[in-house]
Amino acid sequence: MNNPVGLGVVGAVVGAAIGYFTKPQPSLGMLATVDPDATYQSAIVTHIAIFAVVGLAVGAALGALTLLTARGK
Predict the structure, then answer these.
(1) Has residue 70 got a pLDDT over 70?
(2) Which of 10, 14, 28, 29 has the smallest C-beta neighbourhood within 10 Å, fewest atoms?
(3) Backbone torsions φ then ψ of 25, nearest 5 degrees
C-alpha cells in the first residue's frame, strides 16, 4: 500500500470517528417532520459520512504530498 492510499484510509477512519463522536443534536426542524427518529438517524449518518470523506481527502492529499517530496529528493 502506498502513502496516499494508506494515509487516505487512516484519514477516513479518523474522520468517521470524529464524526461519530460529534453527533449533531436534534433540531426543531427535525422534530417537525413525519418521522423525527428517521430524520435524526439520517442526519447522523450524513454527518459521519461527511467527516469520513473530508478525512479521506485530507489524508490522500497529505500522502500525495509526502510522495512528491520523497521523489524530489
Answers:
(1) yes
(2) 28
(3) -85, 150
For residue 71, the Cα-to-chain-centroid distance in whole angstroms is: 29
Residues 4-34: pLDDT tens digits? 888 889 999 999 999 999 988 888 888 888 9
Where in the chain are the domains?
3-24+32-67
pLDDT at 1: 61
Rounded to whole angstroms, the Cα distance separating 18 from 52 reads: 8
CA distance linking residue 17 with residue 69, whole number of Å: 29
pTM of the model: 0.82
Amino acid code (one letter) for 71: R
* Residues in Cβ contact with 3 at an 8 Å cutoff, skipping those fewer than 6 apart: 63, 64, 66, 67, 70
Q: What share of the chain is helix, strand, coil (3-state, %, to 5)?
A: 80, 0, 20
